[in-house]
């Protein structure tokens, strides 16, 4: 008997027992759909995290005070990262494009409509470029505002809605989102807020950015660096004007590693005269490093999810083996009759293996269709851009076929070894 005859006979046998064949495929269908959806969700999470970091710029470098060990200590040394360090980086590191020192402080913000606690960031105009933080209404403060210690602030997209609720009424449709850049019945631009008893004019509203690195930029207010030093925090370091972080953008993504190396050497030289362990006075992190860490984490989670879902494929394969063993018992007379009229052991073996492979491949195809449909639903109703490559689909179907082949061998061998005389006696 050739392969085509075996395929035809296997197809007719499975079609005759549609319900049993469908139930046998169910485990493979669920397993394939689970694997494809889990891999798709994992890839979508990876893309989403990457996009969130991309909006902040992959060429950004953060310099923060103290080492990791120093920050774990209960008693930490005074802040040695100062404004002069930022100026030195801007003037002496050739791979750096722009530098934006910042001071952060948690303050109560009072408007005529509400009082909220927010993160107040004092920085320079270059912050917009370094951190990719545009305004959607009004403007960011300029160098002239720095020179005259202007009492102006640019406000985050979420904070402005909290402080001026009357300008942002809830939409009738709950699915619609309130746009901070489209106030209704008035504009926050030109309004005053009070911080520590002093009034500040709102000159701009920031584009919505969301949370990143533990900070929600939309719940933040920005003011000129000189203003926050003169009116809010004062001079807190004996070494100069202490800064919370120095934001640096490299000239290109390829220059990030070189910029980190040059900045490290420069700061070690600047701090060495005061402290032999100069490297413990600062830590350098980059968006590139964070992106790689997030990519590794999401990749590991994707593998874990796929591995968990693959258990369903294993269970489906065991189900195929069980049903095929039952089928061998039920078809003893058929096997005996075929052997009596000349069918060889290999013919019986091939037919049962083909039946198992057909069940697993068909289940794989149905499961793939369901999995792709599930991914489309995830992409439509969540921010995840879920998707699976054709290679992943081919791999899933191939694994299904291999499982059918593997688990179909034992029943096929049992059927092939039946003694035709013993089988015919049961007629």
Automatic annotation (TrEMBL):
This is ABC transporter permease. It comes from the Bacteria. It is a multi-pass membrane protein. One of its GO terms (cellular component) is plasma membrane. Residues 21-265 form the MacB-like periplasmic core domain. It is found in: Cell membrane. Residues 307-420 form the ABC3 transporter permease C-terminal domain. Belongs to the ABC-4 integral membrane protein family. GO terms for molecular function: transmembrane transporter activity. The chain crosses the membrane at residues 21-42, 303-328, 348-381, 387-410. InterPro entries: ABC3_permease_C, MacB_PCD, Macrolide_Exporter_MacB. The keyword Transmembrane applies. PANTHER family: ABC TRANSPORTER PERMEASE YTRF, MEMBRANE COMPONENT OF TRANSPORTER-RELATED. Keywords: Cell membrane, Membrane, Transmembrane, Transmembrane helix. It comes from Tumidithrix elongata BACA0141.
């Amino acid at each position: 008997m050739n392969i085509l005859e075996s395929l035809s006979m296997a197809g007719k046998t499975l079609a005759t027992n549609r319900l049993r064949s469908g139930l046998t495929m169910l485990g493979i269908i669920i397993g394939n759909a689970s694997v494809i959806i889990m891999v798709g969700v994992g890839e979508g999470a990876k893309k989403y995290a990457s996009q969130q970091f991309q909006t902040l710029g992959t060429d950004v470098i953060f310099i923060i005070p103290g080492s990791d060990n120093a920050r774990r200590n209960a008693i930490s040394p005074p802040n040695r990262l100062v404004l002069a360090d930022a100026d030195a980086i801007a003037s002496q590191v050739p791979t750096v494009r722009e530098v934006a020192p910042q001071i952060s402080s948690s303050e109560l913000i009072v408007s005529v409509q509400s009082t909220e606690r927010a993160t107040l960031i004092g920085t320079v105009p270059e912050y917009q470029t370094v951190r990719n933080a545009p305004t959607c209404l009004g403007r960011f403060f300029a160098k002239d505002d720095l020179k005259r210690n202007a009492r102006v602030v640019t406000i985050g997209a979420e904070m402005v809605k909290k402080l001026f609720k009357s300008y942002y009424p809830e939409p009738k449709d709950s699915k619609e989102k309130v746009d901070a850049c489209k106030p209704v019945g008035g504009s926050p631009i030109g309004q005053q807020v009070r911080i520590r008893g002093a009034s500040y004019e709102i000159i701009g509203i920031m584009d919505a950015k969301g949370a990143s690195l533990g900070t929600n930029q939309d719940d933040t207010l920005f003011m000129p660096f000189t203003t926050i030093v003169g009116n809010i925090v004062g001079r807190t370091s004996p070494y100069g004007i202490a800064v919370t972080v120095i934001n640096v953008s490299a000239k290109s993504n390829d220059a990030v590693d070189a910029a980190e190396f040059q900045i490290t050497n420069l700061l070690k030289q600047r701090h060495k005269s005061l402290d032999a362990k100069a490297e413990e006075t600062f830590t350098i992190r980059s968006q590139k490093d964070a992106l790689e860490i997030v990519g590794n984490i999401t990749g590991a989670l994707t593998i874990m999810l796929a591995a968990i879902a693959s258990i369903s494929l294993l269970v489906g394969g065991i189900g195929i083996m069980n049903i095929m063993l039952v089928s061998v018992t039920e078809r003893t007379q058929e096997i005996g009759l075929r052997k009596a009229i000349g069918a060889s052991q290999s013919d019986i073996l091939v037919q049962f293996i083909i039946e198992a492979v057909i069940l697993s491949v068909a289940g794989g195809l149905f499961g793939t269709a369901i999995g792709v449909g599930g991914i489309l639903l995830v992409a439509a109703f969540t921010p995840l851009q879920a998707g699976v490559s054709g290679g992943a689909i081919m791999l899933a179907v191939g694994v299904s076929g291999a499982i059918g082949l593997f688990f179909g061998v034992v029943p096929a061998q049992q059927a092939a070894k039946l003694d035709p005389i013993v089988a015919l006696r049961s007629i």
